[in-house]
Amino acid sequence: MPDPQDRHLLLVEDEPDVASFVQQGLEEEGYEVSWVETGRRGLEYARQGGIDLVLLDIRLPDLSGLKVCERLRLHRPALPVLMLTALDAVEDRVRGLRAGADDYLPKPFAFDELVARIEALLRRVESPDRPGRLEDGPLRLDPVARTCTYDGEEVDLTPTEFDLLAFFMARKGQALGRDTIHREVWGHDFDRGTNLIDVYVNYVRRKLEEVGCENPLETVRGIGYRYVSCGAEGTSSRADEPTASTDRSPPSSR
Predict the structure, then answer these.
(1) Residues sharing a CB contact under 8 Å with residue 99, sequence separation 6 or more, in sequence order
(2) CA angle at residue 235 from 151 to 192, to 5 degrees?
(3) What CA–CA distances, in Å, run from 94 to 102, 123, 242?
(4) Where are the beta strands (DSSP E) in the chain?
(5) What φ, ψ does residue 159 adopt, rounded to 5°?
(6) Do the Cβ atoms of 154 and 148 come closer than 8 Å?
(7) What's CA 40's distance to the chain center, in Å?
C-alpha cells in the first residue's frame, strides 16, 4: 500500500465545510493536503508539479472541474484525478470520465471509501508488481516508464487507460468478466449500475485506432472483453458503447 507520508494531494473544492472535512481526515491518515477553492488556482497549482493526486470537484465558481481536468491532461497526462461531486447521473459520470478523470465518487460519500479509492489510484501508478514490458507486434507497453507506443508512435493514455490496456495485454486471448476487470484495474467493488468499463474500453479502442491499431479489444457477449491483437479480424462489437456519451451538454449550475 502506498505510504501516505510520501504523498501530496491537491484538493480543489469551493465548499469550505466539505474541504475542511476531507482535508482534516486525509491529513490524519498521513497525507499532505493542499486546498484551493477555484478551478484556475487548482490548475496552476497542479501544473507546478509535486502533486501525486488531484481531488477535483466539478461545480467550481470560475472554471468547471471538467475544464480543469481537460486542461490538466494536456500538461500532466499521468497525474491521477479523482472527481468528487454531487452529480451522480450516468451522463454526469460519463462527462467526468471523458474529461480525463480516473475515478468518480459522488457526494455524500463514506470517508473510508474515499481513502480506499485514493490508495487504489496511487497503487496503480506506482506499484512495483507491474508486469514487465508488454509487446504485441508494433504495440508496446512499458509499465515502469508508463509509456505506450505503436510502431514507434506514442499513444497518449491516461493512467486508467494505461492500466486497463496493460491488464488486457497481459491476458491476451482470455475472456475477462466485468467484475474481474473492475476489481483488478479500479481496485474497488463494481457498481453494476454504471457503464464505467465500457466507457474506458472505448477510450482505449479509439486511441489505438487513431495510430493504426485496429480491433484490439473484442466484446464477449454476456461476459466482458478479450484482447485479441492489433489488426485482428475478430468480431469486435461496438453495440455496448455508452449512449450517455452522446449528451455533451454541460451540467446545470448550482
Answers:
(1) 65, 66, 67, 69, 70, 73
(2) 100
(3) 11, 23, 8
(4) 8-12, 32-36, 53-57, 81-85, 103-106, 134-136, 139-142, 147-150, 153-154, 176-177, 217-220, 224-227
(5) -55, -45
(6) yes
(7) 21
- Using omega within 30 degrees of 0 as the cis cutoff, is the peptide bond preceding 108 cis? yes
The residue assigned the cell 465500457 is: 198
Distance separating alpha carbons of residues 247 and 87, to the nearest angstrom: 15
Copy the grid coordinates of residue 40: 484556475
Closest-CA residue to 73 (of 37, 105, 97, 93) = 97
pTM confidence score:
0.58
Condensed to tens digits (0 to 9), the pLDDT of residues 60-99 reads: 989 899 999 988 887 777 789 999 888 777 788 888 888 8
Q: Which three cell numbers stand for residue 3?
A: 505510504
- Cell of residue 246, nine digits: 452522446
Tens of pLDDT, residue by residue over 29-59, are 999 999 999 999 998 988 877 899 999 999 8
Query: How far is Cα of residue 66 from the mean position of the Cα atoms in its chain?
Result: 13
- Asked if 51 and 7 count as a contact pair (C-beta separation under 8 A), the reply is no
Written as one string, the DSSP assignment of 22-33 is HHHHHHHTT-EE
> Crossing angle for the helix pair 65-75 and 39-47, nearest 10 degrees?
20
